[in-house]
Specification:
With about 400 residues, the chain is an alpha+beta fold. It has a domain of about 120 residues: D-Amino Acid Oxidase, subunit A, domain 2 (D-Amino Acid Oxidase, Chain A, domain 2), CATH 3.30.9. It is built from nine helices and 20 strands. The longest helix has about 35 residues. It is globular and about 65 Å long.
Length: about 400
């Protein structure tokens, strides 16, 4: 190996997934430079914008209309790949009460959209310049300092050292870290795509069952399903043949439609992870590195996009106001401003999803009655329904 070279950058973003790329592009739109680090390789012989995410990536993302509005500002909305959600039907298995949320109540083209992870990643990556990402970079050490953070990494067989004024962690779900509080739901999500009959008509379903929520998200002509189950039942479902899997899904969903041609199944465990504090010296955490939520109501990824956008807004505002001559104290004040301003959105989204899961994932008769009354109240009392819907669409930006 050769001697380590030292690079100086203002903002270093660890993680070139959609949240990290959103932050980079939002900063670039305001003429503020940043560098992305990615431990993954880019496909040989292709541009940064091609095949950024593996074609086999099974995830589908439920993006709110608010997320679309933000991504359009950096020319990164994957319009052709996005399936609109025009209505959302919410109900509980073997219980009364339901509510229907409709885009027409908010004069919107859609309440949200369903996009494959790879399609969104490619739309963002298409806007990156050739020197925006340092790919196949393995971080070896992070050394905080008074004014800067030093990152030692291995890249292309060489040691490199990068000194940065701000290190942004956007690399995804954190591992073991004492700063991250973890609450295990003892649930796994089984995901796959499946064909509905009749067609989905751009309607999403959130069906609460004693095992956990079942979500059906329109994606092309299919549904992307998130089938939440206890780990032992998830084991069984993963090992079923297609016919038995369809029967298990049908039993949880009911007979409003039938299903066929299930695709490849994947699974992942579910937990609530919240990092506190978000800021340590000249380091900050955003997206899944800051919090991971249960997938019920599809809030987690939208929260990460809002994290990136608000951090960019604060850094750009301070840079413009101070003509980019910020002191170390200015930078740290910006970070603490960001952390304070994100509290309502983070805590509100985490509390909302956590309460839903814990309230609905059981077969208690008294709670089933309360849940039914709650769903009925949302349906017959529009202000309550609009309060919930607007926060799903725009997060804390919908306040008051």
């Amino acid at each position: 190996m050769t001697e380590a070279s030292v690079d100086q950058v203002d903002i270093l973003i660890v993680g070139a997934g959609p949240v990290g790329m959103t932050l980079h592009l939002a900063l670039a739109a305001g003429s503020r430079k940043s560098l992305l680090l990615d431990r993954r390789p880019h496909p040989a012989g292709s541009s940064l914008g091609a095949q950024h995410a593996p074609p086999s990536d099974p995830r589908a993302l439920a993006l709110s209309h608010g997320a679309r509005q933000l991504l359009e500002q950096i020319n990164s909305w994957p319009n052709r790949a996005a399936t609109p959600i025009e209505t959302i039907h919410v109900s509980q298995k073997d219980g009364f009460g339901r509510t229907l949320i409709d885009r027409s109540d908010y004069a919107l083209p859609a309440l949200g959209y369903v996009v494959r992870y790879s399609d969104l990643a490619n739309a963002l990556a298409a806007n990156l310049t050739s020197n925006a990402v340092l790919a196949e970079a393995e971080i070896l050490e992070i050394t905080p300092g008074d004014d800067r953070v030093t990152v030692t990494l291995r890249h292309a067989g060489q040691l490199r050292t990068i000194s940065t004024r701000l290190l942004v962690h956007a690399e995804g779900t954190p591992g073991d870290d004492p700063a991250v509080k973890v609450s295990d739901y003892v649930q796994h999500a089984v995901i796959c795509e499946i064909t509905p009959t009749p067609g989905h008509n751009r309607r999403a379903w959130e069906r609460f069952t004693p095992d956990g929520p079942l979500a059906l998200l329109p994606l092309g002509n299919e549904y992307s399903i998130v089938f939440t189950l206890p780990p032992d039942k998830a084991d069984a479902v993963m090992n079923m043949n297609d016919a038995d899997f369809i029967a298990a899904l049908q039993q949880q969903f009911g007979q409003r439609m039938t299903f066929s041609q299930p695709g490849r199944r994947s699974r992942f465990p579910l937990a609530l992870r919240l990092r506190d504090p978000l800021v340590k010296g000249n380091e900050i955490w955003i997206g899944n590195a800051a919090q991971t939520l249960h997938p019920v109501s599809g809030q987690g990824f939208n929260l990460g996009i809002r994290d990136a956008w608000q951090l960019a807004e604060i850094l750009l505002k301070n840079g413009v106001d101070r003509e980019k001559t910020e002191s170390a104290a200015d930078w740290r004040q910006s970070l603490h401003d960001y952390a304070a301003q994100r509290q309502l959105d983070r805590q509100g989204s985490a509390f909302f999803t956590d309460r839903i899961v814990r309230t609905f994932s059981n077969d208690s008769a008294p709670l089933k009655l309360v849940r039914g009354l709650g769903l009925l109240a949302l349906d017959v009392f529009p202000p309550a329904r609009h309060f919930v819907a607007k926060r799903m669409i725009w997060g804390a930006r919908a306040w008051p």
